[in-house]
Amino acid sequence: MKKLVIFDLDGTLLNTIADLGNACNHALEKSGFAPHPLSAYNYMVGNGVRKLLERAQPDAGADTIDVMLRDFREYYDMHCTDLTKPYPGIPELLAKLRGQGIDLAVTSNKYQRAVEKVIGHYFPDIEFAAVMGEVPERPKKPDPSIVFAVLGEHPCPKRDVLYVGDSGVDMETARRACVESAGVTWGFRPVSELRSAFADHIVSDPMEIFDIACRNR
Q1: Are the C-beta atoms of 16 and 84 separated by less than 8 Å?
Q2: Distance CA 5, CA 209 (A)
Q3: Which of 167, 163, 165 is nearest to 193 (CA)?
């Protein structure tokens, strides 16, 4: 049985795409650029807000991106719970894992303040061993530093860790950290991306994660 399950946030625990897209469109329009349909954002998110803005407006220079980043954060801090929702079965999965004594952590490329806010809002009754987002001193995923940071705060043998995410970035993060991975099909990226990134498991129902975590080695 696993001792620790580490979850990605956006596209894994929470469907955040509408609020992320609206914040990005707000930043674009304030700088005089055209917005994108929300459906376009599935392939822009996953590598942090700055990269999201760069993908949304490739012609913007670094100074303009700095302004857009400020506008994005101001808007998102106020609106990050407008349309975001947990995926069906996720609250129950988290509670069931904790009921088995399995520790939980969250690792995200979203900036730390926003990660803490949405986790506290949507999962107030769930105890997490660590909740980690983007901070200046740590590289973003797929660099495995964030996983190592979790393990530094909450020591656990790597063989007892399961990493769960919805993208190739997440699967590469797990692979580079040398921990077992599970890719979820309900997130922002297609199953083909998870397969190409060598996911150890591909799951289409949250309770499959429970089964993997509780499986005897």
Answers
A1: yes
A2: 9
A3: 167
Which residues are CB-neighbours of 64 under 8 A, at least 6 positions away?
31, 57
Does residue 29 sit in helix, strand or coil? helix
Determine the Cα–Cα distance for residues 198 and 182; give it in Å rounded to an integer.
10
d(Cα 51, Cα 141) in Å, to the nearest integer?
A: 12
- Chunked in runs of 10, what are the mean pLDDT values of the chain (217 residues)? 97 97 97 96 93 95 96 97 98 98 97 97 97 96 98 96 98 98 97 97 98 85
CA distance 159 to 182: 14
Q: Which of 120, 117, 169 is nearest to 144 (CA)?
A: 169
Q: What is the pTM of this model?
A: 0.95
